[in-house]
Design brief:
alpha/beta; Rossmann fold; eight-stranded mixed beta sheet; 12 helices; disordered N terminus
């Protein structure tokens, strides 16, 4: 029954995605020597959205209009994500959490944004966590969609087993990519983070093309395995209002850290999206958007 529901949800998601791209015209700003593209809409306090691996600013297409009603909604394409300049498959480049956090700081300075609400998904959530630790004065609030913070689950038999299994699956995606089999690599990437590659079989060619374009950085992330770089002590010192968002159907490796973060991060609230896996804001935008809007309203009570 659960598998059937996941397939139906993916199918509906992809029907929507067939025509769903970000309607705003991309703009760009120079960030540490490279053009970084972004889309924005609305006015008010800035809300900056940071996508995860193999994504780009289109990951937030379902959030832009909702947030733009009351905020200046900005979705970025991180370094290496299209339409930014991308490395070749055999290039060596820095895709660590800290490096991307430095880009975010430079982006905000280039945009003359001294402080913002930050929303991140997956690796993007890891990036904004690092950023909030390094630059707390620039963050008004955090929304974290399932960052794989390994430090909060390591050190136990169950936690270490989940980490080992996740890394083994990630390594398999890297192997397929380096062997020249991009389809097998992308399918394995989906299995690693979603628990299944069903999405590949129901996705539109346009959607898959976007994932393939951004796969090179996803493989770098999988090979670098920089998911233990944020310590429990750093997390316990975060004094920023934080919303934690997880999916009801998310794989244990990504779900377990959310419960731990809710205990460790002082001013955090945890919400769970029904019938949703790691796709979160794309798979269940209605619940995701409501949770975010309600949270932001409490950060800025009228």
């Amino acid at each position: 029954m659960k598998k059937f529901l996941i397939t139906i949800t993916f199918s509906l998601f992809m029907l929507i995605c067939k025509s769903q791209t970000n309607p705003s015209k991309p703009q760009s700003v120079l960030v540490r020597g490279e053009k970084m593209h972004y889309v924005e809409k609305g006015t008010g306090e800035p809300v900056i959205m940071v996508h995860g691996a193999i994504g780009d600013f289109n990951a937030w297409s379902f959030q832009m209009d909702t947030l733009a009603n009351n905020y200046r909604a900005i979705a970025i394409s991180r370094r290496y994500a299209q339409p930014n300049k991308q490395p070749k498959s055999n290039d060596t480049f820095d895709c660590t959490v800290a490096y991307h956090a430095q880009d975010l700081a430079a982006f905000m300075k280039a945009m003359d944004i001294p402080k913002a609400h930050l929303i991140g998904h997956s690796y993007g959530a890891m990036i904004i966590l690092r950023f909030a630790i390094d630059h707390p004065e620039m963050v008004k609030s955090l929304v974290l969609g399932e960052p794989g913070v390994e430090s909060v689950i390591s050190g136990t038999v169950v936690g270490d087993a989940m980490i080992s299994d996740f890394r083994a699956n990630s390594n398999l995606a890297v192997k397929f990519y380096r062997d020249g089999d991009e389809e097998a690599s992308l399918r394995q990437f989906m299995i690693t983070v979603l628990g299944s590659d069903e999405l590949y079989d129901v996705a539109t060619p346009e959607f898959l093309d976007g994932l393939f374009q951004n796969l090179v950085e996803g493989i770098c992330i999988a090979a670098t395995q920089d998911l233990s770089s944020i310590s429990k002590n750093e997390l316990s010192n975060i004094q920023i209002p934080t919303l934690l968002v997880k999916g009801e159907l998310t794989i244990p490796y990504l779900a377990a850290p959310m419960d731990s973060l809710n205990v460790i991060v002082p001013h955090s609230t945890l919400v769970e999206l029904t019938q949703t896996n790691h796709a979160l804001q794309g798979q269940n935008p209605v619940e995701f958007n409501k949770a975010v809007i309600d949270f932001l309203a409490n950060v800025n009570p009228k």
